[in-house]
Amino acid sequence: MKTHIVRARAADAAFPRTEHLATRVAEVAADLVPVPAEVAEMIINRLIDNAGVAAAALVRRPVTTARRQADKHPYRPGATVFGLPAAQRFSPEWAAWANGVAVRELDFHDTFLAAEYSHPGDNIPPILAVAQHTGRGGADLIRGLATGYEIQIDLVRGICLHEYKIDHVAHLGPSAAAGIGTLLGLDIDTIYQAVGQALHTTTATRQSRKGEISSWKAFAPAFAGKMAVEAVDRAMRGEGAPAPIWEGADGVIARLLGGPDAEYQVSLPGPGEAKRAILDSYTKEHSAEYQSQAPIDLARRMRDRIGDLGQIATIVLHTSHHTHYVIGSGSGDPQKYDPHASRETLDHSLPYIFAVALQDGSWHHERSYAPDRARRADTVRLWNRITTMEEPEWTRRYHATDPAERAFGARAVVTLKSGETIVDQLAVADAHPLGARPFGRDQYIEKFRTLADGVIDPAEQDRFLAAAQRTPDLLPGELDQLTFTVSETVLGAAPETREGIF
Questions:
Q1: Distance between CA 304 and CA 361 in Å, rounded?
Q2: DSSP codes joined into one string, 412-427
Q3: Closest to 81 in 3D by CA, of 493, 492, 480, 498
Q4: Please, which residues have CB within 8 angstroms of residue 493's CB and are 6 or more apart in sequence?
Q5: What is the 3-state secondary structure (H, E, C) of 269-300?
Q6: Which of 384-408 are b and which e, b meaning 16 or more Cβ less than 10 Å from the residue's Cβ?
Q7: What is the rounded distance in angstroms from the CA atom of residue 150 to the CA atom of residue 333?
Q8: How would you list the strands of the sheet with 386-390, edge to edge?
Q9: All domains of the chain, ordered by start, with CATH?
Q10: Which of 96, 297, 334, 433 could hold 129 in an S-S bridge, CB 3.0 to 4.6 Å?
Q11: pLDDT for 272-297, tens place per residue?
């Protein structure tokens, strides 16, 4: 890996394009190095993972809205949309939109946390849609996805967005554009322009994940993917981007991030170096914000030791800065204790999640968020007794570069009304690569089948899983196998939505 120093430059500074971060990203994307076997295998896992969480969300309102929007944009050759017959094709940017919302709706797919947050599986819908539309094969798709994961994760390691309240999808637009560039074998200059356009059009504030969180939380990554598709299309036609997009005097760093004096270090693969970043990411066993994964497992482990939960006086979760301020009581959001809050808000409330996991000993993507579940009197009482606290050691481990040290967990201090305290901690979720039950191919398939049950016919599940597991061998024109179709009865259960412009 080669580390690049990235900082804002004065308008009259000598700063050749060869030194722009967008050029460095484009160089990585244009380097068509072989994909290691273990990377290809992990990409297959994530294709399966995305399809499973999309199936479970298929008839939720935001997903239904996005699918109905895509349905108004049929196109040939086009790309497929989850749930609809593979023979039906749609304009690739709209297919990316619909599938991106389906994948993101339940907050249940893969994650990478470092200086910034990310769900790098959000790269899959736009890159796959373009691959289907352009008649690429499985090997091309694998190369494109390896780039998408690499660029997003490398940017997440080096550039913190949330410190300045910029949403994490600002790293997704450039990574998806770069991945599409790899997929299509584009030249460095074209990818450079596409990366710049994608970044410029996908920078937004973090209000989408603050306070009363709405359905836009699911739409935001899909929007970034859609913008990446359109950016690449424009760049291929010869259109340019604001430049230098990160380092310009009025660029992202100077005006949206650390300012003229800030300096960032972004490490990217050197020439001929394999793109392996996906191996550092991890998926979720539970449908909740990633920093609540280990606390859910901790709550399940502690409930028998605690016994009568009605005897709890207080629970303090000692955790990292990010966890405390984003999904904990340090956020200052009263909505995180509101039993009438949206599912999206509850998904980002660690006090709520810990309370329900303690009471139920399990976590479910629908039942755990049901309105009557959130409003149970005993749950509300317990929920309001739970707070979070930043602890420097957890913050240090959150940012540790050594994978064996890096942790996203918490220490729970449970004080009973008798004065007795019960203490336990968990550094990483059970499903984490270093956890008690790390996910492998079997676990990805089991998760898919669990989420697809009652949505995708068993024979169609088998067909999809067989196709996904031979992705590297799919021939040009065969990538339409990487979708699933459901019955009209299943789609008929989708809610009514209002008419729009289309």
A1: 9
A2: EEEEETTS-EEEEEES
A3: 480
A4: 59
A5: CCCCCCCCHHHHCECCCCCCCHHHHHHHHHHH
A6: ebbbbbbbeebbebbeeeeeeebbb
A7: 34
A8: 386-390, 312-319, 410-416, 421-426
A9: 2-280 (1.10.4100.10), 290-426 (3.30.1330.120)
A10: 96
A11: 999 999 999 999 999 999 999 999 99
For residue 94, the one-letter residue type is W
Task: Compute the distance between CA of residue 224 and CA of residue 208 in angstroms, rounded to an integer.
Answer: 14
Evaluate if residue 355 carries a pLDDT over 80. yes
Residue with tokens 């006090």, as numbered in its chain: 351
Specify the residue for token string 């009363």: 212
Selection from 397, 433, 114, 461 nearest residue 283 by Cα: 433
| Model confidence pTM above 0.85 | yes
Q: What is the DSSP letter of 224?
A: H
Distance, first Cα to last Cα, the chain: 46
Question: Residue-wise over 412-444: b if at least 16 C-beta within 10 A, else e?
Answer: bbbbbeeeeeeeebbbbbbbbeebeeebeeebb
In this predicted structure, the answer to whether residue 426 has a pLDDT above a threshold of 80 is yes
- The tokens for 79 are 């790309």
